[in-house]
Structures are given as structure tokens and as C-alpha cells.
Amino acid sequence: MIRLDHLSKRYHDVTVVDDVSLTVETGQIGALVGTSGSGKTTLLRMINRLVEPSAGRVWIGDTDAATLAPHLLRRRIGYAIQGHGLFPHRTVGENIATVPRLLGWREAEIGARIDELMHLFDLDPALYRDRLPHALSGGQQQRVGVARALAARPELLLMDEPFGALDPVIRARAQTDLRAIQRQLGTTLVIVTHDMEEAITLGDRIAVMDKGRLLQYAPPAEILTAPATPFVEALVGSAERPFRLLSLTSVADLREAGTAPGPEIAPETTLREALALCLWQGRTALPVAGGGVVTLAALQARAEGGRV
């Protein structure tokens, strides 16, 4: 668990983070979203003391982060940034091994952890372990960057716009992979993004910031259906809201008895994905693996105002 308790940061007479309190529960993802200059990156960096707070406290579990030496604190916290931040003259394996070596792990333990993470991120160690970063695609580099941040099994992973430099297709895959891996490992994660779509896709709770203040901190469905301020409402977007709501629910919750031609879709397919399939392929119903169908009519009704 991570708890921010009345956290503020001032530079002379300018307040960039103003009295922010929030909690990210163990094993959950907290997404910090806002426009440039909203204070979200400064807030993230105060968690691992890359920026020292002017007021307030950061709690990692039951530990006040201010009581730990900064280098010891950062060894407990993984950190991944936009553009991956890999060491260009170190191989993939050497990059992933960076923090475990600093912590004095045995070489056999380090080697096993490298292989474990590379398999987890769908990177065959035999093919990629000894490659330099420039020999990887952008998506592969980003996966290695996240693997490096997770190498020492940190209690907490911080991510600052980690997918901002990726193209839309690779970015969507990276988000899906991150969510699946985070669920598998149970890592507590705080991610900064300027993209509400990404915040909704990844966040268990979303913190919307503007001009250094926390405007709303709530689950995605609440952010979408009950925005606390006009700024939050504008950030959500009225035109996009129905489709973003559909992305929060799977077809398993909307399927009904019946059959339909064509390939089955997985029960965890989102309603948004199912609607896109129906419209793109001109189908009125999709069969769901395990039985039942989801119909275009039901999807359209949900998009037009049904509750998620």
C-alpha cells in the first residue's frame, strides 16, 4: 500500500503540488492523469524522493519514506520512464540485472531472474538476452525497461508516461501486457499519463489533477459517470464517454442465451471491442466462448445510456 498524506511541493512562491492525499491499495493500479503542468509527475517523483516534499508525508506500507535514506528507498521502488531509459551499451540481460547487482544478489539468482522476466515479457532469452537496446523494436525496449524496474521484486512500481513514445498499436499491446503482468505479480503500481483512455484502461482508481490540486480520485466508472468538476468532465470527453464506459465491462456480463455464426470471442472481451467487431464485420451477434451470445442491439443499448 502507498499513502500520500497532505503532500505539497513549492518552488519559492509557486505551488506545483497542493495538499494531495490519496491511497493506492496493495496490488492495485493508481493512475495520475492531467494536462501538462498539472503536477502529476512532481507528485510521482516525491514518492521515491527524486523530488523532496515541501510538506506532507509518503507512506510505503507502515514506513514513512522520509525515514529512509533516498538510495535505500529507491531500491524498494521500481521506476520506469518514457523512452525506456535503458543503458545503450549494456545488453538486455545486463540492463535487467542492474538493481539486483547493486543489491548484491548471487549471479545464479540474477540469471534466473533475468530469464524469468524475459519469459514473462515474451522475450526469448536465447534470442534477446545478449542484444543491445538498439537492436530491439520500440515495444521490446519498453518491455525491457519495465522488466528492469521489476527485477528486484519491488513493493511498488512507478511509471512516468511509459508508453508515450510508442505508436498506437504497440501502445495498446503494451498496456494489455502491463495489466496482465501486474495482476500476475500483484505489484502495487502508480502510473502518470496525460491520456484519459490509458488511465481508464489501466487504473483501478484514477486521480485527476489540475494546477497542482487533486480534483477527483475514484474508480474509472465513477470518473466517467459522476465527474466532480467541469474540468474532469471535459477531460473525460462527452463524445468518448459511452465507449469508455463500454471498455470497463466484459461480454460475460452482457451475454444472453442463443447462438450465432462465426468465430467465438473470449468472455473477457470488452463490450467496446465487441461493438467494434459487430460494426466492422456487419454482424448482429457474436458467439461467446462457453455459451451464449452478445448482440449488437444490447451493445448499442448499453452505449446509448445503459449503466455499466
Automatic annotation (TrEMBL):
Keyword flag Mitochondrion: no
The entry's keywords: ATP-binding, Nucleotide-binding, Transport
Domain ABC transporter span(s) in chain numbering: 2-236
Record has Amino-acid biosynthesis as a keyword: no
Coiled-coil residue spans: none
InterPro entries: AAA+_ATPase (IPR003593), ABC_transporter-like_ATP-bd (IPR003439), ABC_transporter-like_CS (IPR017871), P-loop_NTPase (IPR027417)
Family: Belongs to the ABC transporter superfamily.
Database matches in PANTHER family: OSMOPROTECTANT IMPORT ATP-BINDING PROTEIN OSMV
Protein name in the entry: ABC transporter ATP-binding protein
Species for this entry: Rhodobacter lacus
